[in-house]
Amino acid sequence: MSLASGPGRAGMSSMPDEMQLFVDKHVRYIQSLDTRKDELEYWLTEHLRLNGLYWGLTALHLLGHPEVLPRGELLEFVFSCLHEDGGFGAAPGHDAHMLYTVSGVQILATLDAFAELDERVKDGRLKIGKFIANLQDPDTGTFAGDEWGERDTRFLYGALNALSLMGLLHLVDVEKAVQHVHSCANFDGGYGTSPGAESHSGQVFTCVGALTIAGRLDLVNSEKLGAWLSERQLKNGGLNGRPEKKEDVCYSWWVMSSMAMLDKLHWIDGDKLTKFILQCQDPEMGGLADRPGDMVDVFHTNFGIAGLSLLKYPGLEEIDPVYCMPRSITKRCLGK
Amino acid sequence: MAAYNFIRNWLLTIFHSSLHLLRAILYRLNIVRLIPTKKNSMPKYYHDDEAWADIEPLPQDDGGLHPLAAIAYTDEYSEAMGYLRAVMAKNEFSERVLGLTEHIISMNPAHYTVWLYRAKTIPELGIPLKDEIAWLNPTALKHLKNYQIWHHRHTIIDALGSPEGEPEFISTMLEQDSKNYHVWSYRQWLVKRFDLFNKPEELEWTADMIETDVRNNSAWNHRYYLVVGGRDGKPSQELAKREIEYTKTAIRKAPQNQSPWNYLSGIIRAAQLPKSTIKDFALEFADLDRPDEVYSSHALDLLAEIYAEEESSRAEAEKALNLLATRYDPIRANYWNFRKGLLDQPKLTA
């Protein structure tokens, strides 16, 4: 999956008055990403390849066209990123890392391929689970991204996400992880990457997501956090990630998914946000950008469409705000 | 697509064969250059470099060359990676490896494997850590939002055991992007790692950052970390008073600014002071008797909270919330209406 930006640009003037989601264009855009390997940016984004597949695949499911990426080839690629120790690298030849391991598990879950994993690799799921569990810091409960030890609430959330999809949460100390997330709560109601780090919508998503998976939303001051999250909406309808920053389509996801988990989604103006997201489309070549006038890419395409799904845009599959995966798939994995 | 794969496989065959001469000619003629690079400098190759004659590059195993995974590199990058895989396979740590990692990082600084190998190489060679930091500085400035560079810096400075020179470097970084999350997180790590909480320069620097841009939320967050968040226990009354006065001055400069209002509430709560402490201050920006002259929705918000806690000010609280829902922050009308609903609930008695 190419993460190269473009070719299209999100429209401004050419946008019709009556706004709509260009489903077919976006499907074709995601499909076309695979044919762009001769571009410079393709290999510059190699370190995100497995993430890119997850974004593209999720967007296609939400758009109702999961079949357009060949399942067999996708699986081949995912398995070729799996290391002996149970971790996934971003692409073949890259070291294993938590972020790609989570994407790998999410793709396997979406493709309903855990059984094929276990056929190929003996106790495959357990192996992946152990790789993740080994990255938990026994003292603080948080997680590192790899053996080199960079720690961040992103990794903690990723660990709980992947483990719960595989039914292996018992491999880690969930209570300790929960206490660590709790220690990252800030004076303004938000959460950061580590205790004391500035509140940031992306990190709020990871912390609220982790607490939801652990069943400990009781630790969140949901009114204060909900208020902070709703303050992210700007007059143009778009959402930003931190106070006094610019709006960006991807925050439609980080902010709204958190609000959905807290049952506060109605605290923002959904109509205005829908309009803003639709303005970020390229109506001709497909794809969404961070804001109108910028180049489209698969990351913003996925999170824009996921945001529209949370806003109940007609015709889209329902998204699970905790996992950023189709709800039908998380239901199958979690049995609830 | 088929033609492309054919050419690619053909090139790979050549690359792995012993036809060094032909390969060299192809490179010289630029035939193998699939993609033009953005760099202006001459590309660097290893196959015709005497110093690397003993190394046989290892090919990329990209999962069997099926269409979804096949990756096209520039030949320069591809060759350098082949040599990196080869030296990693034999655990070589040497000056030439250090140069190779630098070369690859210059082409693709987000490739985390190459950073990790560099971090292993530095101590093996006994390279002075300060030299590594000196090398790292311009690289970091070129790639402001790269995670790997910051992690590498953490590792080196932690091993070095001194934050000397780091504040100057951080200032240079923040000149490019004054709200860069990596930089501020790194600054917090320095404060904690080297216990700079009571160093006057740290608070002065934070004040300078706020002075430069009173809307910089990262700077306000750092101040909170220094004064309250990173410390144990509740702040003294004296300290709370100093911070409240400091923040009032900042708010008077720009009343419609979330960060200092959040900060003010945070200090009041940490010091366990009643919110009414800042009632008169909030009234400077939003007097309910003059609804046309509201200078800050944050002041209205705060007043609504204060009135809601008072015995007989329910009507004022409702008025403030109505102004927010209809005039001063209508995009969040549902939230303000929710707050109005709370006014009718029985108060919890402490």
From TrEMBL, chain A:
Keywords: Metal-binding, Prenyltransferase, Repeat, Transferase, Zinc. Pfam families: Prenyltrans (PF00432). Its cofactor is Zn(2+). Residues 21-325 form the Prenyltransferase alpha-alpha toroid domain. GO terms for molecular function: metal ion binding; Rab geranylgeranyltransferase activity. InterPro entries: PGGT1B-like, Prenyltrans, Ptb1, Terpenoid_cyclase/PrenylTrfase. Its EC number is 2.5.1.60. Binds 1 zinc ion per subunit. It catalyses: geranylgeranyl diphosphate + L-cysteinyl-[protein] = S-geranylgeranyl-L-cysteinyl-[protein] + diphosphate. One of its GO terms (cellular component) is Rab-protein geranylgeranyltransferase complex. It comes from the Eukaryota. Belongs to the protein prenyltransferase subunit beta family. Catalyzes the transfer of a geranylgeranyl moiety from geranylgeranyl diphosphate to both cysteines of proteins with the C-terminal sequence -XXCC, -XCXC and -CCXX. This is Geranylgeranyl transferase type-2 subunit beta. It comes from Ophiobolus disseminans.
UniProtKB/TrEMBL annotation, chain B:
Its EC number is 2.5.1.58, 2.5.1.59. The keyword Magnesium applies. Keywords: Magnesium, Prenyltransferase, Repeat, Transferase. GO terms for cellular component: CAAX-protein geranylgeranyltransferase complex; protein farnesyltransferase complex. Coiled coil: none annotated. GO terms for molecular function: CAAX-protein geranylgeranyltransferase activity; protein farnesyltransferase activity. It comes from the Eukaryota. Its cofactor is Mg(2+). SUPFAM superfamilies: Protein prenylyltransferase. PROSITE patterns: PFTA (PS51147). Belongs to the protein prenyltransferase subunit alpha family. This is Protein farnesyltransferase/geranylgeranyltransferase type-1 subunit alpha.
